[in-house]
Inverse folding.
């Protein structure tokens, strides 16, 4: 079994070896936790610094690093069967595909879209909503 | 798997009788439909990972909705994010991280036959879940109090509420003009309250009506400042002060719709996690877990970690928009 092979090659000789699975050393777990807390402080601090366009990619980059730490250390994927990592990455890839195609679709139909609220919402907003933004359909070009 | 295959790891089963239903030597931790503890463990791990993949896809739909909304309304997100409490969100992030750490330690203690450590860590993880939900409750109730809700109710202040301290929140919001960018002013119609027979303007409180130009295009003259409310009227002023903020971009309710949808679904997962943690704690106290039987702690922990992992992305996406 793959996990058995991974097991015996692991160097932590003082760590207990159950029949199945892998025991993560305490220093790895505590180190990962501290790294996550430090990165949280960093990402909050960065929020107050104006980096223009770079703010959001930086915040998401830090989140990605944190997520990787959680997945590899806390969730044992560093020592787990590679297929489980493939399952996780596969699901994330499909979410990114969904976002990418939805964004392309929205971009494609942008010229014909209503700005503001959905048309059906207008009657509700007109009747009850002082100050609510009211949308108007943009006339089709051409 | 064919019954004729011998399994060297599992000598007593090498005769090929997989379904002997406990006749003879049978490991109490091995279900009879598995060949070995290793196969049983790997199957459980693959199963929970496939479930976690469906969870990623589950939230993925909402992440896609978030992406589309933010692409189309960047001004709304940079404006409305300031209504969220970064400190509360940051503390909650730390609470989840620490509870993830105690969960990972719990798995280790189960693997090393440390029953006390296991129970202590499971209880600590459970308390982390409770702490997260308590903080979230305070955040939500504050938003409800300020009428920062989803849908058209965002523009309709409820009756009879009072507002006072919320003014400070508004003052910390970004200043007008700079955040609004409307490419085509003709796309927006400034609602004319007086022209609408359906609205009894007198029934709307002065303080809650706000400036008439919330959808004011950039470059247009700022609406006249609302006249100072009469002394005493302040007490009756409604907390929905965002309606008084001329800097509020159109469709700001969309931010709160996706905020409640995503953090709400995440909160439901935290509640489910509490159920799993309580069940694991009960079984740990009963003495079910050991280095030979810790799969339930391991897989339950993986679920708890994915709840933490999703929050790691929700936090910057909602609270940390510069």
């Amino acid at each position: 079994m793959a996990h058995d092979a991974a097991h015996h090659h692991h160097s932590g000789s003082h760590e207990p070896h159950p029949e199945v699975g892998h025991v993560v050393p305490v220093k790895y777990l505590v180190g990962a936790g501290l790294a996550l807390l430090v990165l949280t402080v960093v990402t909050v601090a960065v929020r107050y610094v104006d980096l223009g366009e770079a703010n959001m990619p930086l915040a998401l980059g830090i989140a990605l690093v944190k997520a990787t730490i959680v997945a590899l250390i806390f969730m044992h994927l560093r020592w787990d069967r590679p297929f489980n990592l493939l399952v996780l990455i596969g699901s994330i890839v499909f979410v990114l595909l969904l976002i990418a195609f939805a964004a392309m679709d929205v971009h494609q139909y942008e010229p014909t879209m209503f700005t503001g609220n959905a048309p059906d919402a207008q009657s509700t907003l007109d009747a009850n909503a002082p100050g609510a933004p009211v949308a108007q359909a943009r006339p089709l070009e051409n | 798997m064919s019954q004729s295959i011998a399994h060297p790891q599992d000598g007593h089963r090498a005769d090929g009788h997989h379904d002997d239903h406990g006749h003879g030597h049978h490991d109490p931790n091995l279900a009879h439909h598995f060949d070995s503890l290793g196969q049983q463990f790997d199957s459980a791990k693959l199963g929970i990972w496939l479930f976690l993949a469906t969870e990623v896809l589950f939230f993925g739909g909402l992440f896609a909705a978030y992406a589309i909304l933010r692409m189309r309304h960047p001004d709304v997100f940079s404006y409305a994010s300031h209504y969220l409490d970064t400190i509360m969100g940051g503390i909650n992030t730390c609470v989840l991280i620490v509870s993830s750490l105690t969960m990972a330690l719990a798995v280790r203690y189960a693997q090393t036959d440390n029953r006390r450590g296991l129970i202590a860590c499971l209880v600590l993880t459970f308390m982390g879940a409770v702490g997260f939900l308590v903080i979230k409750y305070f955040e939500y109730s504050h938003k409800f109090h300020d009428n920062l809700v989803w849908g058209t109710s965002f523009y309709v202040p409820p009756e009879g509420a009072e507002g006072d301290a919320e003014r400070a929140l508004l003052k910390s919001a970004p200043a007008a003009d700079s955040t609004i960018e409307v490419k085509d002013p003709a796309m927006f119609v400034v609602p004319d309250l007086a022209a609408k027979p359906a609205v009894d303007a007198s029934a709307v409180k002065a303080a809650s009506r706000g400036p008439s130009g919330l959808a004011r295009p950039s470059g247009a003259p700022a609406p006249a400042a609302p006249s100072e409310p009469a002394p005493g009227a302040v007490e009756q002023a409604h907390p929905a002060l965002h309606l008084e903020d001329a800097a509020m971009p159109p469709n700001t309710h969309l931010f709160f719709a996706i905020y409640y949808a995503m953090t709400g679904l995440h909160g439901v997962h935290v509640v489910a996690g509490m159920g799993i943690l309580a069940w694991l704690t009960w079984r740990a106290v009963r003495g079910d877990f050991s280095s030979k039987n810790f799969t339930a702690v391991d897989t339950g922990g993986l679920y708890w970690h994915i709840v933490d992992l999703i929050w790691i992305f929700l936090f910057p996406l909602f609270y940390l928009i510069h």
The helical segments of chain A are 2-8, 26-47, 55-74, 82-109, 119-128. The first strand of chain A starts at residue 134 and ends at 135. Chain A touches chain B through 76 residues (CB under 8 Å). The beta strands of chain A are 134-135.
